[in-house]
Amino acid sequence: MFLHSYIEMKKIEKIKKSYAVDYKEDETPIIHYQSTLGDGFILTDKSLYLGKTVPETGNKKLIGNLPINNISSFNVKEEDETTDIYINEINLISFVKDTSMSITLNRYFEMIRENDFDITNEEVSENIIRKLDPKIYSYIKNYIFDDELLIFIALGSNSATASDYIICTTNRLLLIDRQAFGLSQNIRAFDYEDINSIGTAKGTQSGGLLDQAIVGLIDTGLKLCHIEVSVAGRAINIQNLNQIEGERVIKLVNDYKRSIKQSNKQPQVIQAQPIQSSEPDILGQIEKLSELHKKGILSEDEFNVKKAALLEKL
């Protein structure tokens, strides 16, 4: 299954020739699924296009489209071996059971039904946790602070038997080594503000020029990229990331770094506190003495003595 950012124009052109023959140029693809048998669908912001092989017709492919406005319900149900998509209560699409895909599709369909495409960091984090293998999450959560949310996870590899989880949180970039037969104890965490730079890099290639050329062609064909993270004067490489995921990691880190830098530049507003003078309010006290004198409470002599004493303090 491919979601919006991963659906390439070349793929859309193939889909249009296969079953989305009425696909319009102004449509935005949201979800695409293609089975190994060639069956599939593409959901856009305007229509659902479907191509499905029907055994009862001698394996002829049924093609068609349904405007979004005519769709009253989307539902994803998991059976023992399949994940089934129901459109208007009709099972139109089935594929090999995939729980992670079911979670994603249900969330997308819910957003479409409610016409609400605002996603909070809390929702993103909850969705990532639901999709992660419980064993992997039980390991990761030991390194996540209580107020920290998971924003993005990508998978890279540094050898044929090892791979890395690259995790962007609301506070840090986490790199976790994962061996083919279990998790190692190697985890590196970097606060965004401590990262000097992050960007694409050339992969670590060994062998002759021919071997390097072949690796380069594989990277280009599979759209892989390599990331280099510079922290405290050392470079850390993550290889063989999906190009779109790698670019997403780079953008997230740079966005958080920029946000931190801007917040640090905000001027500190200090409220000036009124200065409490230790000197008595001489003039105010003289005025009070004058009022007491006028009322006859103080005699002329008493008033003059007290007035003179206060004036000496000025």
Structure notes:
The model is unreliable at 204-221 (pLDDT under 50). The strands form four sheets. Strands 1-2-3-4-5 form a five-stranded antiparallel β-sheet, with no helix packed on it. A four-stranded antiparallel β-sheet has the order 9-10-11-12, sandwiched between helices. A three-stranded antiparallel β-sheet has the order 6-7-8. The longest helix has 23 residues, at 243-265. The protein has helices spanning 9-18, 99-114, 121-131, 134-140, 209-222, 243-265, 282-294, 300-312; strands at residues 2-3, 29-34, 40-44, 47-54, 60-67, 74-78, 82-87, 90-96, 150-157, 162-169, 172-179, 182-191, 195-201, 224-231, 234-242. The chain contains eight helices and 15 strands. The relative contact order is 0.06. The protein is α+β, with helices and mostly antiparallel strands and 314 residues long. It has three domains: 2-114, PH-domain like, CATH 2.30.29; 149-265, Roll (PH-domain like), CATH 2.30.29; 282-312, no CATH class. It starts with a strand and ends with a helix. Helix 7 (282-294) runs antiparallel to helix 8 (300-312).
Strand % is: 25-35%
Largest sheet: 5 strands, antiparallel
Percent of residues in helices: 25-40%
Q: Order the strands across the largest sheet as they lie in space.
A: 1-2-3-4-5
| Contiguous uncertain segments of 5+ residues | 204-221
How many distinct domains? 3
H/E series, N to C? EHEEEEEEEHHHEEEEEHEEHHH
What is the CATH T-level topology of the largest domain?
Answer: PH-domain like
The name of the CATH architecture of the largest domain is: Roll
Structural class: alpha+beta
